[in-house]
Amino acid sequence: MSQSAHILLVEDNRMDIELTLDAFREARLGNTIHVATNGQEALDYLFGTGKYADRSQYPLPDLILLDLKMPGIDGHEVLRRIKVAPVLKRIPVIILSSSKEEGDRALGYDSGANSYLVKPVSFDGFIDVVRQISAYWITLNVHPPEYE
Amino acid sequence: MHIIHKTNILLVDDQPQNLLALEAALDLPHSRLVKAQSGYEALRCLLKEDFALVLLDVRMPELDGFETARLIRSRPKTKDLPIIFVTAESQNAEDVIHGYSLNAVDYVFKPFVREILQTKVSVFVDLYRKTEQVRQQARLLQKSEKHLEALVAERTVKLAAANQQLRQEVEERKRAEAVLQQKTEQLEQANKDLESFSYSVSHDLRAPLRGISGFSQIIARRHRESLNEEGQHYVDNVVEATKQMERLIDDLLSYAKMGRQSMSVQSLSVYEVFQKIAQQLHPRIEEAGGHLEFNPNMPIVVCNPTLLHQIFLNLVDNAITYAKPDVPPQVKVESTIEPHHVTISVSDNGIGIAPEFQEKIFNIFQRLHSDESYTGTGIGLATVKKAAELLGGSVSVESTVGEGSRFHITLPTPS
Questions:
Q1: A45, B128, B176, B269: least surrounded by Cβ within 10 Å?
Q2: CA B188, B189, B191, B195 torsion: positive or negative?
């Protein structure tokens, strides 16, 4: 997979969005990152509804970075809906949460998360995390075939 | 119990020589012969004493034998008294019938055969004695029954009192237990509240901290050159403070989490626990030029792995943190095994703890040093204590200021 992979970042915290985007920039990873700031928006993007109907502008992502704690439809619910939708279920989902809680981890993996990462506190940590995500999930990992 | 009293036999005859003859014939053991020379005298004797038998002459002047017998029978006390009529052989059958009609038990004809008379009298004497014995036993039995009843009654009263007291004690105990239960529940609830509170606080503190930490680091990274010396100093301070804050939240989180997580138990090699810790703290030990010494000859304990790991991680981490300036930390782990528990000691050559602080250090947020000199959060030893107690064990410390500290963790061994 080339560095032009599309990543959907689902995150409600403005600063966390900025830090993640900044870390991607700092790591000089040329991926295209789309941001959904709540669960509903993430689902709209993924199912191509409303303003996200144009797939050429909003293509299905190659990877989803998903926060858990969000008001309204939370990360767990978004994950469940992704994993039962034939068009979406093969897309790797990485949970990026500040919770190390056993319950969150169990529920995340049970709902079909492909990976679970804890948000680092420092910016250096963020850079390190996005580098490793990119190295493994975009470069090393063999991408699933697209749903026909 | 057999008390043999002399048995009274009443001999009644108006002829003194006849009385003498009877007396001579009735030489019975344990018998007392009372003589009466008339029916009236006989009745008087019967009023005064109890008799086993009356030998009654039929032919007597004034009150004859039959009349005497009738009077004897008319009194309730003597109505069943055995009477043997003594009469001349010439006596006709009518007399005999008359005698029996007065409930005479027998007849003896004069002149009597001594052996026959003795045998007949003996029968009644024996009967009387046996009856008396039975009566006496009945009386004794009654007496002892009464005694027994009294005893039972007394015991019953005592038992009732004891029962009452016991009931009261049980009631009091129940009340005390209920109060205790309530207190325990309140305490448990308070603990739960505190834990969930500190858990969510720790969690929610992380989000803004990430902002402060992340963006201050970005400034320090990208915009350092555009800041003057003062600005650079302040940014460095912010970055440093966020690191300290992060440690604090981590420690608080693990402290709060301790009571919440399920306590799975497994058999653990203390040696392997220290191997992991050595690996985990390797960079820090290396940086300090220190050394962590432990040997494979350490006990196997059965307990929760996370808690055990936290205990020793905190102790070793502290030993490295609180080293003397310019003296590389030397941390040594030793263990002793006793019948019901094991003690694992972690000792260091650090700055030590003054005696007045040796109790306090296990309290949460109890710090003895300013932030500048040492990087602790004041939660580590509270975590150690809580974890040790959750495992049914305890922690203690020996220390000399300027020489070092030795922490002892005592854990129960399964019986």
A1: B176
A2: positive
